[in-house]
């Protein structure tokens, strides 16, 4: 039987968030050319720049969420709860700030930027679901995906 | 002269009022769109911590499900946010 987890005890075991976030970022790199191409064809160069910015926001959002959860789980389960909730607010605020800062920039087209954020976020998540194992032996990715990732490193 | 000035003033006021109403509505939409996912993430994480406390050996599995659950729930807030930026800036 494993150790008892209380709200002040750290969550032991592997950190699957980091593995999943890395895999999502890798897949984001695969689809980036497609997003840039589609946005570029419809909205021109500014659309492509906006799509790239949107993809960057999505990838940073995943990475920050994983980093916050991994860091807080190493300290305590209670802090992980706090980090998940306040992390959500902080990340929304950061996304808002990231868009607010460039709202008047000449290269920003809001429609491709917004569409990229939604489509990339949901698309990458649904795609990642194919490779998630979530079993006791492999808590994060399926063995084939894990071996591919370790052989790539 | 005074009638023209009054008409211009009314037009400016109308435009300002419309801008204020638009900004308020967009802000309300964003705020309301963030409430649901906030409740969802709170519930999700609470249940996940409970599951980890009950079965510590399954913590890795639960954390995977929790991370993906948070990301899916957050997508709702992101949709609300994108609607907000489209209403506000386009």
TrEMBL record, chain A:
Keywords: Cell membrane, Membrane, Transmembrane, Transmembrane helix. The chain crosses the membrane at residues 28-45, 51-71, 78-101, 107-127. It is found in: Cell membrane. One of its GO terms (cellular component) is plasma membrane. Pfam families: ATP-synt_I. Coiled coil: none annotated. It is a multi-pass membrane protein. The keyword Cytoplasm does not apply. This is Unannotated protein. It comes from freshwater metagenome.
TrEMBL record, chain B:
Its main location: membrane. GO terms for cellular component: plasma membrane; proton-transporting ATP synthase complex; proton-transporting two-sector ATPase complex, proton-transporting domain. GO terms for molecular function: lipid binding; proton transmembrane transporter activity. It is found in: Cell membrane. The chain crosses the membrane at residues 28-46, 67-87. Keywords: ATP synthesis, Cell membrane, CF(0), Hydrogen ion transport, Ion transport, Lipid-binding, Membrane, Transmembrane, Transmembrane helix, Transport. Residues 26-87 form the V-ATPase proteolipid subunit C-like domain. One of its GO terms (biological process) is proton motive force-driven ATP synthesis. NCBIfam families: ATP_synt_c. F(1)F(0) ATP synthase produces ATP from ADP in the presence of a proton or sodium gradient. F-type ATPases consist of two structural domains, F(1) containing the extramembraneous catalytic core and F(0) containing the membrane proton channel, linked together by a central stalk and a peripheral stalk. During catalysis, ATP synthesis in the catalytic domain of F(1) is coupled via a rotary mechanism of the central stalk subunits to proton translocation. HAMAP family: ATP_synth_c_bact. This is Unannotated protein. It comes from freshwater metagenome.
């Amino acid at each position: 039987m494993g150790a008892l987890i209380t709200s002040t005890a750290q969550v032991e075991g592997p950190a699957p968030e980091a593995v999943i976030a890395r895999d999502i970022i890798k897949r984001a790199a695969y689809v980036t050319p497609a997003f840039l191409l589609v946005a570029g064809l419809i909205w021109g160069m500014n659309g492509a720049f906006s799509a790239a910015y949107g993809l960057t926001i999505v990838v940073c959002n995943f990475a920050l969420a994983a980093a916050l959860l991994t860091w807080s789980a190493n300290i305590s389960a209670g802090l992980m709860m706090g980090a998940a909730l306040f992390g959500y607010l902080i990340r929304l605020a950061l996304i808002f700030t990231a868009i607010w800062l460039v709202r008047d920039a000449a290269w920003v087209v809001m429609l491709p930027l917004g569409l990229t954020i939604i489509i990339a976020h949901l698309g990458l998540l649904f795609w990642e679901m194919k490779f998630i194992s979530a079993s006791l032996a492999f808590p994060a990715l399926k063995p084939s995906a894990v071996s591919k990732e370790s052989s790539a490193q | 002269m005074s009638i023209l000035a009054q008409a211009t003033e009314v037009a400016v006021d109308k435009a300002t009022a419309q801008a204020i109403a638009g900004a308020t509505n967009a802000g309300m939409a964003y705020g309301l769109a963030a409430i649901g996912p906030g409740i969802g993430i709170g519930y999700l994480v609470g249940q996940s911590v409970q599951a980890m406390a009950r079965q510590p050996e399954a913590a890795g599995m639960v954390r995977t499900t929790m991370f993906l659950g948070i990301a899916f729930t957050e997508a709702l807030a992101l949709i609300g946010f994108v609607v907000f930026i489209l209403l506000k800036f386009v």
